[in-house]
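Hello K.,

You asked for the raw outputs rather than the summary table, so here they are, unedited. I folded two proteins back to back in the same session to keep the settings identical. This is the first:
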Amino acid sequence: MSSVAVPRVSIVIITYNSNATLPRVLDCLAAQTFRDFDVILIDNNSRERPGPLIGNRPFPVSYMEKTDNLGFAGGMNVGLAACRTPFLAALNPDAFPEPTWLEVLVSAADRYPDIAAFGSLQVSADNDAVIDGFGDHYLLSGQAWRGRMLPPAPEAFGAPEYCFGVCAAAALYRSTPLRDIGGFDERYFCFYEDVDVAFRLRLAGHQCAVIRAAVVRHVGGASFTGLSDFAERLIARNEWWTLIKNIPLPDLLIAIPAYLAVQLVSIWRGHHPARVEGLREAMRRTGEFWASRAAIQRTRAISPRHMRRWMTFDPRLFLKRASPTGPAPGSATGSNS
């Protein structure tokens, strides 16, 4: 009996009413210069299922239909469970990769074994000059953002630019570290779930970086004109959960009052009922996430000082949506004190 070779990468796509953009994504994958991949396509109970759009593709596709909407986090965990490859690439159904996208990411992964998560340069699908995202970045008061400004380019093509974390709209993860930290937290549903993953990877001693030469065109980000009540509620809720779970104790004593001050100002200025609802749910379940925190902090492999290096205390960077990336850091391990 002949065995079927396992590819190096599984590309996981989570769809939910995504039929307008999915065919273009699949066409972009068919044009990839790196061919050693398969696709795991998971549909979160769309009104119109995307199965008929798969057609005859020049790569293997595993297609799963869910009877409930698992959210992005739940869908990614289904994909992670089905993944048998060394690398898992997360790709949104409205993110269109350039032909060399996967080749550049895999090449970087081969050269930099200390990095567990590789992000892409996301530009607007409508305008290449508009940066939709360059790394995920984290303010100590609990706010995360995608960078919308490009720092000076590294001298070497494809060199990593280290940062707090990567946006899962178009990212390459090493499968083993992602499994070791427990995958995505399904309680988040969506929003901040990739920020939480980046936190837990870093606390486990891994690195995250963006690769400027890995380019995708994203429909979402830059052209998004406002937040729905659903998004507003989940963002407020998940911000708190991420902070409570992950920030080491010395900085948590600063982060909690800073977070609460930001929320009070936000409510006073805009009085978003959905944000208030999200905050109420967040606070009601604080004990549950404090329990999750105990396990994360007990097993972390880096010191609070090292984790502090990847967060920012400067709110101006958040307001400008800057991209505070840096060169290769020193050792990722240290005392847990």
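The second followed immediately with the same parameters:
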Amino acid sequence: MTIVDPVLAQLLRLIPHHAVSRLIHRLARWESPRIQPLLRWFIRHYRLDMSEAVEPDPARYPSFNALFTRALRDDCRPLEGDARSILSPADSRVSAFGAIERGHIFQAKGHDYTVTELLGGFADLAQPFARGWFLTVYLAPRDYHRLHMPVSGQLTTMLHVPGRLFSVAPRIVAHTPRLYARNERVVAFFDTAIGPVAMALIGAINVGSIETVWAGEVTPPSGRVISRTDYHGRNINLERGAEMGRFNLGSSVVLLLPDHPLHFSPELGPESFVRIRQEVARITQA
């Protein structure tokens, strides 16, 4: 940490987050041959491995967002483990993980937030996770930006919680109290073999939108009211490792797991890199 980090975090709070993000939303979808130099610079600068993409030719991407949300070949991310494996939801860096203590989730040194805050104030949705587990991961610009299921489950509820759009870069997260509970987010809840599991897709500055495979583009929103959609009885089932959504530009995911016996993979640690379909935890009891 340098003295610049807290000052930068303070300055970023003054930016009109949503206005900037709306502009980026439009620019990222601009389709023109003129964007090709930008795409090729981005690939070189962030060292994207285009050999993993279904379409490796940059010229075939009509917009920046199309490149950013590129599909990967299935053989690049094989399923690890078995039915007891909990998989990484994204190609990402680990920000934090561990036990949820009395309903509080660790964010960074000196900062935490509550499950209830993260879940829009809905105590009934938060209750199963009060003494559960969490994993927070951060997607950098070079990462694959589609999100995948950590376990097999049936969709039960989706929340859209409007909020700020602070940067989720680690140096900003460390100096912005309750950031994940303040940023705009989409939270999907699934009924699984170990109980309720939730994936909170956290918005951030420049994140033009968040999509899910069942609802399409959820953000940017048309209003500022929390929405809660019930999917019970609609039989939307997703297998572990299946695509469930995407960030149109990057952000973070907070994975919530219930109070069920499990242990995290010994390879997991702060700033460790994980890939989709990689085992990050293992269920220890049926």
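The two ends are 43 Å apart (CA to CA).

Happy to rerun anything if the numbers look odd on your end.

Regards,
P.
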